[in-house]
């Protein structure tokens, strides 16, 4: 039996087919025409445009350019487009024509003023001059004048110029007051004035008034100078001469006063300064009760420090001379810090042995001591009040004179070497920590120096205790 095998393409045949396809593709690519470049000159601007276009109009459309009615195009829009031939756009120029009645804008291809006037049929009206971009142009020069952007037909105007007592009439085509004065030969000084001002537009039948600067005398900054101005008020005369006033300065006469030629104006320069005087703020001492401290214990919890106060004074000077002073407030530069003292309010009852036995006391204070009798108290026997103490009891041994602000009056104390005593007397010289021990006439003992005084008995109420003794 014979078995049929499937046919297999020859490898060489495959290669030939691929080469043929590649050749066809290359041939197709080679047949596409290359892009062309066209050049458009729009005034001074060169614009390249690439592609394939049939006419000049298509090239302009591709460049996005539009033409106005008065623009020129070379070659024309229907001309076949040729990359070798530049396309030129000559834009029409805009000319604005101004006359007495209207402002009109024209578009033209004219190159000179004469061509433009002929093209538009325009001509200056009788009695008017022609201005091209602000410059006057004579009729003979029209053909030589390049096309301007603005043409003005300016008619003649009649004005009256008054300069002091002189008056003159002027027929002119000037545009402004300043030009008219220049044409009339009127010269102005730097400070001379004009009404209306030089830059004002000229109109027919206008009255122009020259305001000549008048002489004045100004006294300012230590100098006396002669000045000129056409103004009639103090402020304007100074301003015309560059003399400025500070915020506090004033003048004689006042700035809004009217002055006449030859008057004197005085400028008073005013300055102010603020002087500061340092004043010490003394600190205060404050006391705080301390339950953790025993009575008559005093400790400093916080040291005090003085503060600083700046007392301000505003000083006014006129032309450098002081004329007044006025308070201008106070500023605390550094605050004072109080001194804090803690004093003990804790009372501890203790016992002391005496010749008569132990006694309880709640306070012990060292005091200056003296002694006295009824006779040495200043009264003689037989005189009213002799021997009677401030408490009403008889002076003598066991009664002492005290300062009631230190030892509670009518209380009992113990003085070593003297014994228990009744605080029943006072005296003009008994002040502070001082006791005067009383004696009967036959028992007097002289005391000098200091002694410990023990306050006996239960302590009084807290509000009756002087916690800090003098």
Automatic annotation (TrEMBL):
Residues 267-347 form the G5 domain. Keywords: Signal. One of its GO terms (biological process) is peptidoglycan turnover. InterPro entries: 3D_dom, DUF348, G5_dom, Resuscitation_pf_RpfB, RlpA-like_sf. GO terms for cellular component: outer membrane. GO terms for molecular function: hydrolase activity, hydrolyzing O-glycosyl compounds. Signal peptide: none annotated. This is G5 domain-containing protein. The lineage of its organism: Bacteria, Bacillati, Chloroflexota, Ardenticatenia, Candidatus Promineifilales.
């Amino acid at each position: 039996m014979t078995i049929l095998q499937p046919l297999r393409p020859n490898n060489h045949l495959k290669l030939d087919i691929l080469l043929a396809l590649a050749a066809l593709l290359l041939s197709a690519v080679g047949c596409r025409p290359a892009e062309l470049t066209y050049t458009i000159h729009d005034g001074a601007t060169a614009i390249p445009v690439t592609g394939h276009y049939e006419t000049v109009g298509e090239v302009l459309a591709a460049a996005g350019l539009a033409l106005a009615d008065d623009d020129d195009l070379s070659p024309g829009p229907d001309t076949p487009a040729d990359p070798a031939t530049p396309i030129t756009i000559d834009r029409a120029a805009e000319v604005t024509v101004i006359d007495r009645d209207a402002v009109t804008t024209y578009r033209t291809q004219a190159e000179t003023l004469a061509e433009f006037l002929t093209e538009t049929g325009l001509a200056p009206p009788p009695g008017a001059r022609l201005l091209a971009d602000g410059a006057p142009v004579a009729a003979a020069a029209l053909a030589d004048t390049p096309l301007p952007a603005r043409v003005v037909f300016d008619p003649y105007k009649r004005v009256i110029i008054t300069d002091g007592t002189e008056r003159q009439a002027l027929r002119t085509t000037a545009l402004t007051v300043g030009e008219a004065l220049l044409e009339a030969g009127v010269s102005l000084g730097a400070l001379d004035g004009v009404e209306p001002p030089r830059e004002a537009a000229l109109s027919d039948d206008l009255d122009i008034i020259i305001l000549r600067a008048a002489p004045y005398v100004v006294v300012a900054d230590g100098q006396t100078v002669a000045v000129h101005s056409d103004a009639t008020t103090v402020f304007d005369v100074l301003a015309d001469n560059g003399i400025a006033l500070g915020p506090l300065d004033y003048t004689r006469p006042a700035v809004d006063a009217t002055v006449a030629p030859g008057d004197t104006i005085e400028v008073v320069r005013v300055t102010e300064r603020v002087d500061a005087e340092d004043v010490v703020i003394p600190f205060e001492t404050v006391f705080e009760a301390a339950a953790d401290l025993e009575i008559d214990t005093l400790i400093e919890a916080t040291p005090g420090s003085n503060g600083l106060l700046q007392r301000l004074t505003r000083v006014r000077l006129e032309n450098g001379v002081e004329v007044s002073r006025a308070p201008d407030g106070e500023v605390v530069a550094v605050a004072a810090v109080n001194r804090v003292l803690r004093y003990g309010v804790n009372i501890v009852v203790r016992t002391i042995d005496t010749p008569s036995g132990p006694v309880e006391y709640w306070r012990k204070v060292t005091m200056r001591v003296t002694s006295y009798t009824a006779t040495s108290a200043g009264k003689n026997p037989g005189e009213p009040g002799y021997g009677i103490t401030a408490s009403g009891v008889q002076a003598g041994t066991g009664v002492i004179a005290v300062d009631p602000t230190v030892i509670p009056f009518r209380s009992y104390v113990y003085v070593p070497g003297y014994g228990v005593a009744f605080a029943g007397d006072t005296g003009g010289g008994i002040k502070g920590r001082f006791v005067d021990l009383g004696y009967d006439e036959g028992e007097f003992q002289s005391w000098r120096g200091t002694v410990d005084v023990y306050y006996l008995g239960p302590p009084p109420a807290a509000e009756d205790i002087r916690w800090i003794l003098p």
